[in-house]
Request: fold
Amino acid sequence: MDYILHVLIMALIYTVFASSLNLQLGLAGLYNFGHVAFFALGAYGSALLTVNGLPVAVGWIAAIAIAGLLGLVIAYPLLRLTGDYFGVASLAFAEIIRILLLNERWLTKGPMGVPAIPRPTWLGMPATSLVQYLIIVIVASAAVLAVLVVVGRSPFGRFLKVIREDEEVARAFGRDIVSYKVRCVMVGAGAAGLAGAMWAHYVTYISPADFTIEVTILVLLSVVLGGRGTFAGPILGAFLVILVQEAVRFLPLPPEWGRLVVPIQGIIFGGVLVAMMILRPQGFIPEHRE
Amino acid sequence: MYYLELLINGIAAGGTYALFAVGLTMVYGIFRFINFAHGEMIAWGAYGVLLFLAPPFGLPLWLAIILALALTAGIALASERIAFRPLAGRAPLVLLIASIGVSFVLRGILQFIFGADLQSYGVEISGRIEIFGLVATYIQLAMLGLSLTFFAGLYVLLRFTLLGKTLRAVADNAELFGIMGLPLARVRLVVWSLGALFAATGGILLALDTNLEPYMGLTNLLKAFAAVLLGGAGNVFGALLGGLIIGVGENLGTAIISPGYKDLIAFAVVVIMLLFRPQGLFAVKSGVR
Reply:
């Protein structure tokens, strides 16, 4: 039972994470390969504030703010780039953030990581049971997803699609395209920061090793698998990715093969990513086009 | 003296970065996409030697190296055939994402066979040479010598052979493939196996110098990418210079900043170059020069 709750919590956190990437990648066509940086900053921001005594709610709000602010700071320079160059620059940027987390020991404790991150409180008591945490995660994810849906359906979100389809046309409308993209990155970054905070307070121990490029690939896979540019796609993708990841643990492997779980996950995810690109690049839930 | 030794370390490291960069820049110049799986050629070259050194093969080092190079070239050609050829002509980003998938598969297989721990060949090549009080290890000399030899060979190939001229022509204008009836199959074979050969050689040298770990491909891919950007994408000889600049910069940098930030230099170069001079320091309009 606890295991099912664990899978649900992880899937919901990845749903928020994937949906936040979908805003950038699916709607605006910004191929952000460094999305893990926002997740990491949200996780670290909230963790460091709350281990020093602040309530978890403050930590989560701070996580959104810190990640969103970082989105603003990096979006301005990086958005001068397009296509695969933007992708590589964002990837390099995420690595820079990870190296900073690893080396600024006075703040992050370096490779030792941050232990004993508190769970949120539940009617004055710490939410120690998984059911309580699941309910908190459901409420928070529903709120974030609602915001993302509203943003996506608004004139702002529709114009992001115009930018994605044809930047020249978008420019011809006389709008400030960079400003649109910056706001898009900011909102996505803030939501990813909250996903990071929810994850940090769930696992209660984080270290820079948790925020490698592998995480970006996992969330990218969720979006591409489910269907970019749709709202249901990233949700389906995130659940599929987490389920596959967990299912590998139940393969009938001899116990001494435990170390093989990670490589098998890598082979499956990589293979699926290639197969999707060849067979169904639009994902399981294709975007509706008139 | 200390700085001169850092310089030597830097030049040796830079030579290997340049070897890594060749395949990346050639694929970008001719097939127009960033091949994220190229890093795994570095790792597979290094681990291939380990494979053939250990039982059941137990081969001598030189033979293991030759077989590892052949194995890596085979992997590169297979990945091209299975993943990239069906996607020819699609958006560069589709190919980039597919190459990320390929790199996951290749690294997964590597970890599946060899585990995630640090390993070494157990073959010690510990000789060193002293000139005017400066010390360089044999491995460092091999890094420098081999990368210069390889680039000289590449220069001859691109300048003076019909195939090299074909490569440069195709890089200039991809439509020539169809119009002139150029041998696409041979171009593919040469580009992918050459890139893998260069990367695997660099990976083996790196493993002889330090050790092996499954993520060595990914780490060095990002350095190679920095070298490619410095040299200008598609510019093979720019990549040599770019690699040397990154290697020297990293090693001299450790004299000023904490060694923990050594890797940061390459990434900072990537971001700065993309922002201010995406065409590279030694810009060519396009293609392999």
